[in-house]
Amino acid sequence: MPDHLGRNHQRTNARVIVGIAGGSAAGKTTLARALAEALGPERVLHLQQDWYYRDLSHIEPKDRSARNFDDPDALEIELLRQHLRSLRRGETVRRPAYDFATHTRLSCRHLLRPQEMVLVEGTLILADPALRELLDICVYVDAPRETRLGRRLTRDVAERGRDVSSCLEQHRRTVWPMHELYVGPSRCHAHVVVNGDAITGESIAALARKVEEYRRPGKRAS
Predict the structure, then answer these.
(1) Integer Cα distance of 188 and 177 in angstroms
(2) Is the CA virtual torsion 98, 102, 104, 105 positive or negative?
(3) Whole-number CA gyration radius for the chain
(4) How many CB atoms lie within 10 A of CB 171?
(5) Would you say residue 82 lies in a domain?
(6) CA-to-CA distance for 5 and 12, rounded, in angstroms?
(7) Is 3 part of a structural domain of the chain?
């Protein structure tokens, strides 16, 4: 585990970018929302990797679901990097919107205004070296495979219009292999590992203190 944070950034504007990674349905969004609440929602901008899936409107609808959405190539990571650089500079960006039912990008783009703290979460946030260079604090949310699978089934059926059999097939074909290849190994880059099976008020408070400590001029979190 790294023993220092933010070695690559001049913190002249006191903005902090926190990356939150972990397996699919490990508890990343739960952690990010709770951390934002602890830090003060008005001070935090929360970005999600899932907004940056590539548009598949050029592919026949019947063929889209066969794509590997858990591979890094399914994401426009460079656009996410570009947006993080702009936000660090204090610039407003327009992020894409993605429709999981059709696997296409919507025509609308949402305005994101820079805040004191930026939380960016997703499975592959720590797997991309160039993206990691933009992060000040790296967090990995760890949860057992069975927990993650159960949560993902519930989410995809309820929120993304999927059926159980297709979800299980996707997990077998792409989710688990890509987790083993990219997501799980990225844990070694985390400064902080959080138990996704038990995200407690204590763990949120400790992480919030680390972020606040990092923001203090002349100091680094440890």
Answers:
(1) 18
(2) negative
(3) 17
(4) 20
(5) yes
(6) 16
(7) no
